[in-house]
Amino acid sequence: LLVVLFELSLLSCVVFAGEFLVGTGIYDITGPCAQVNFMGMAQPKQTGHGIHNRLRSRAFIFTEDVPDRTSDNTVCFVSVDTGMGSDIITARVIDRLQELIPEEICTIENTSISGTHTHSGPAGFLQYILYQFTSLGWVEETASTFVEGIAQSIYRAYSNLQSASVYTNSGLLYGSNINRSPTSYLENPQEERDRYADQGDTDKEMLLLKLVADDGKELGMLNWFAVHGTSMNNTNVLISGDNKGYASYLAERYFNGPDVLPGKGDFVAAFASTNLGDVSPNTDGAKCTDTGLPCEPYTSTCHGNNMICIASGPGKDMFESTEIIGKKQFDFALDLYEDATEKINGSISYRHSFIDMSKQEVTLDNGDTAKTCDAALGYSFAAGTTDGPGSSLFQQGTTSGNPFWDWVKDFIDEPTKQQTECQAPKPILLNTGDLTQPYLWDPVTVPISVLQIGNLFILNTPCEFTTMAGRRLREAVHNVLSDAGINDAMVTIAGLTNSYVHYVTTFEEYQAQRYEAASTLYGPHTLQAYIQNFERITRDLLRGESSVTDAAPSDLSDEQVSFLPPVILDRTELFQKFGGVRKQPKGQYSPGEVVNVSFNSANPRNNQRIEETYLTIDKLGPDSKTWTTVFVDGDWNTKYVWELASESGVSYAHITWSIPEDQESGQYRVCHYGTRKLPFEEGEALLSYVVRLFSWNGASYAAACLLELSSLFSFSSPDVATSSEYKDFMGCSKTFNVKNVDSASTSKSDWWAVSPLKASLWK
After folding, report:
1. The whole model's pTM is what?
2. Which residue in 531, 153, 208 sits closest to 370, CA to CA?
3. Confidence grade of residue 317 (pLDDT, cut at 50, 70, 90)
4. Strand partners, 658
5. In the chain, what percentage of residues exceed pLDDT 90?
6. Which residues fall within 8 angstroms of residue 464, CB to CB, at 6 or more apart?
7. Distance between CA atoms of residues 206 and 228, nearest Å
8. Catalytic residue among 79, 112, 280, 449
9. In the 8-state DSSP scheme, what is residue 434?
10. What phi, psi does 471 have (nearest 5°)?
11. Quick one: which of 385, 420, 392 has its CA closest to 406?
């Protein structure tokens, strides 16, 4: 009784503490958009070839408006358009913040960096071998951009701190997600499933925060809704924030106004991830591509072949599907935002722990104890999902091995009998927890935390909880809060936060061993381990006690390897110049048509143009002299496609603009901006350059470059042979008219048929 009274006294302080200071910030984190593998689908051929829309980091700082403000009464939440969080990225961000911010306000313990789970962003930012195979190792070009962009977004939020109110609203959004492993969901008890009959086998709730300054200025919105970032499938090669990135784009354009370019406005809108593990945006479901019939439900195969069992929809292609699912989230969020009147008051606090997930002892419902396991992936992991199939040699739902793959597994690392029994019924394919060469293959220690903003509690997990796993976690924390007298608590899960350790299923779902279960690294009791640890740190928070923690993950920076080839040089064809137009637009267009322009270009890895753009759509002013930029490469209606035409360094930029139906009549142009790498750096002899060519790409490549070497000096733009290693360039198309006419039609310009790459991108 004394404990309960003590906790209730703490609660009285929590609920009526005072007002908030709130800050919002946004920054570009697009990263390398060419030649770097995309993170998520693990398809080696899915490397970047340009940008559909840019990736952003969106930061929110909540702190108590008190004179002695410290990190103890502050929480920092960041939603990033990346595949997931990363422990090394988080650590580097905190280090960078110590240089940017004069006070310790966002720390490793009170900061949540949560990936939206787009599968169309650059890879190479996780420090463990398993996640580096298709990216050819660590990619510093990606990692450094993520670190700086996330840190800058937090710094902007800190600089914008102001007295503000936080309002909340929630509702059920239907028609925007489906369960991609419905047979696994059915393994859960009927009684438990019946409790969620109104939502079914996916969470439909969107929980939203509305942020309004005391002077009435609308600062931003932050919401959580369960859906995978896989509307863009594994054939996409353009950087994209996927459906959540598009939803953020729509919201920010709505509140900041159409004249404000993407990423430049004050209003920040984050559509964050939650327990999306088994949740797909491809609402037409999984069907056989050869017959159009539904796939076999337990193995997700067609005639035994998993590669032709693909989920898609609701649009006619992945671009339209992304648009539809993103707009559904935006429309629903806007309704919630406009009706948000429930004000959050109270204290701000947090608790954080690092936990060794391989050594957790859990208590089961019947009172027995069990343990988690060293990390391992099962056979079905290699099969992939209906959102993106993996290898044709595997199927989902596999609960037993075969002699050949067991031999391959044992050759890499043979699991012990104890490990095999611990992971059962998962047939182990990769025993990653025992693999340490050349460095760790999977994390051992992972971060978890709970952030409190009044009666809102955000559970930060480094993984993808399935629908029912997330429901059980939220319910367990709700019970802890209710026991402490907090009966109006709102609990949400922020997924893919601060690190990444694949999936978490329920014990029952684990028995079916579909993709999500095979990817539950630490065995069948992983969920219970997370539940007990979140219960523990939530109680610590309520009691004002510090949380026990294991050691932080090791920094493996010095051990990282990278085999991504560097950019050697850029060049043009004879008598051409960088930025020169290869394909001019027509003289006149109507709204609804597509403008296509091609330029001589250079490798975009030379300059990621962070907070800038590779393209502009400009409108001529009334004075017939002044150009105003109306769209950039961060806009939905533009595409920047980079094509490497020759291994000797010749490349092209193909820019498309889908003219909006309401576009003003007038004169327009398309401009392209780039940076080229010169043949050799200052002080580097020509002979050294030739040696580098031979040593990197072999005699055939070097010979081709040498044959064209004279053109580099004689026929390219005059400043090629300058002493600087890089040189900016730009080029603009001729002026064309956009005129509102009734007979608008979409036109596919003939240049799309020039190469298979461009034809596939059009599809």
Report:
1. 0.90
2. 531
3. very high
4. 594
5. 85
6. 117, 275, 276, 277, 495, 496, 502, 503, 504, 516
7. 14
8. 280
9. G
10. -60, -40
11. 420
